[in-house]
Amino acid sequence: MFMVLMLHIRYSLLLLLALGIANSPALASRPDRVQFSGLESCISGESIRLSNHETHRIEWFLAAVFPLRQMKRGEHRSQVPLLKKAVYTIVEQDGIRFVLVGFTTQWTWRLSSNVFAAYRLEHGAPNQVWRSRPWEATYDQLSFKTAMVGRRSIVLFQEGGDAKVTTNSGGYDSTYRVHQFGLAGVFTFQNKPEGLIVNDLTPSLPWLRAFTHFPFRPLYGTSITLSQNDSRLMLSASDQEYQIGLETAVRPARTWQYIPRRDRFEPVRHSVRSASQLTHVDGE
Predict the structure, then answer these.
(1) Sign of CA dihedral 168, 174, 175, 178
(2) How buried is residue 180: exposed, middle or buried, by Cβ count under 10 Å (0-12/13-18/19+)?
(3) Claim: this prediction has a pTM higher than 0.85
């Protein structure tokens, strides 16, 4: 009886030690671990909420299929990365849920690479239905915004862009939004047994060009937003470094409206005003 009690105590201590090691900050920050960030991305209606079990199942799967080998090959790297991250969101179309995820591998403090992938949630496990080639990151963060128009999901995938900055002055925290440049792509998709058919809808600011391997036609600018008012879905972007100094000036911002019957974004026309008119209006 004494020996059985001693063995039970020893087993309990070993179990507690193992749990403590597994949950320790040092182990959690190991470079072979993946840092996850699940986003509620829907701007129209309620986002899809997952149970703890579903979240754990999805993150375990994403850690298992993290495309590190493809990223190493794309960047000609062989070393262990400093950091691995995955940003994901859940969308639903035609009664089927999909996991959209942006993978990031940080090789040095200034060099990272990304991969975008989509997985269909099935009964057995998530099934990969679309994945991009790796591309070298230009900006730090990845994010998603989604909207439903009828039964169709519209997805805005962005690298970089606006960021929230928190400062402390006099013991009070102050949070404000900083407009930064970024890359974005907007698309719809159709679910097929063999995978996804992706329709790239991304417009562009005609005076800005980005040379990158971003997986969609890159919309390059600042204040890239997807908004929905009533039944209208609007996409907008601007160029904060635009300067007024000419006799006539085109507005530095552009807006596009989604046209469901054509499955595309079309520009919303703005009148062209002279520089003197713009200055007068701003000064009122």
Answers:
(1) negative
(2) middle
(3) no
